[in-house]
């Protein structure tokens, strides 16, 4: 009808809108080309216990953009998701994470670390999800018991029965599960109890507000108590200073991830943090693309 057509026409000729749409399309094409040129890679951010021992690492996708340097997911994930390209990125990340885990398993200092992988909603609800995960584990020889999949509350409530069933199946193979950004979504004790979970990750917004913000500390304490009564591990992410770390420890959180300890980095930099003879065993897999 006339009104809708008028609106559509207005939008089409609005130069600001048009530029935004064009930029989005360009980015979409660039992501596609980037996938074909294998520009997507994985950084790892170590996780530590209270004795400063590295106990795990989170796999975080990066795009080695030929002109713009190393890009974090904030620069492309939304567009990739909307364009239906996230499953291709997810596959790369899961494969690289499992390959790396299998390599680390051969180094004494790193053999016990877990590797956490962020799962997207699109990936979780794909029909092939379970087979894909099991196939990558079989193909890489990675230990399923060292793989941790990070899900968010909002992803889970989309289709709780299906999510629960998939988690249970993978759990039978030893795979572990964490809820990422915990405290920012819909959390009910009822569903937490039903899910085969292993870990809650306290969202960094609460950690960032420490040590001064009493409300955030209150929420963190509640999360730690909840994790305790459900028998779940709890880890704080986004720990940037010693005051935050100490307060977390005093309140019963014994696992940490954040810039205070280490930033996300290519796998060989993680190995380089370990004793020299072990670092030498790590293969150099750094692509030729320019650095950040
Ligand atoms: P996330 O899973 O909550 O990951 C933590 C983010 O916090 C990472 O950002 C990490 O670099 C950042 N971070 C870690 N420590 C600190 C700190 O001390 N201070 C601050 N300010 N930030 C810290 P990144 O790598 O940009 O990832 C952002 C988000 O993108 C992730 O949040 C995750 O939701 C998503 N993402 C990353 N990699 C993947 C992936 O492979 N697949 C999917 N589906 N999503 C991913
Ligand atoms: Mg995460
Ligand atoms: Mg998080
Ligand atoms: Mg997040």
UniProtKB/TrEMBL annotation:
Boundaries of every EAL domain copy: 24-278
Domain of life of the native organism: Bacteria
Cell location: Cell membrane
Coiled-coil spans in chain: none
Protein's recorded name: cyclic-guanylate-specific phosphodiesterase
Span within the parent record: 597 to 888 of 893
């Amino acid at each position: 009808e006339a009104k809708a057509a008028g609106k559509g026409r207005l939008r089409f000729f609005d130069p600001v809108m048009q530029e935004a749409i064009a930029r989005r399309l360009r980015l979409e094409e660039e992501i596609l080309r980037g996938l074909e040129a294998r520009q997507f890679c994985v950084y790892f951010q170590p996780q530590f216990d209270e004795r400063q021992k590295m106990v795990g690492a989170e796999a975080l996708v990066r795009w080695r953009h030929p002109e713009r340097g190393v890009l974090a997911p904030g620069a492309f994930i939304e567009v990739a998701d909307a364009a239906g390209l996230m499953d291709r990125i997810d596959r790369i990340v899961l494969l690289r994470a499992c390959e790396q885990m299998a390599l680390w398993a051969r180094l004494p200092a790193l053999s016990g670390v877990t590797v956490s992988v962020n799962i997207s909603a699109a990936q979780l609800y794909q029909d092939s999800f379970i087979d894909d995960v099991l196939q990558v584990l079989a193909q890489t020889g990675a230990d399923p018991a060292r793989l941790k999949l990070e899900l968010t509350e909002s992803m889970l409530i989309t289709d709780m029965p299906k999510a629960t069933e998939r988690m249970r199946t993978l759990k039978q193979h030893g795979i572990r599960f964490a809820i990422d950004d915990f405290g920012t979504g819909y959390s009910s004790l009822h569903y937490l109890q039903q899910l085969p979970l292993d870990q809650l990750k306290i969202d960094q917004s609460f950690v960032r507000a420490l040590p001064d913000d009493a409300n955030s500390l209150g929420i963190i304490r509640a999360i730690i108590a909840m994790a305790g009564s459900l028998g779940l591990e709890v880890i704080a992410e986004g720990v940037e200073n010693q005051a935050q770390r100490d307060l977390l420890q005093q309140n019963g959180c014994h696992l940490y991830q954040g810039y205070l300890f280490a930033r996300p980095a290519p796998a060989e930099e993680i190995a380089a943090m370990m004793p020299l003879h072990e670092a030498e065993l790590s293969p150099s897999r750094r692509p030729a693309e320019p650095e950040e």
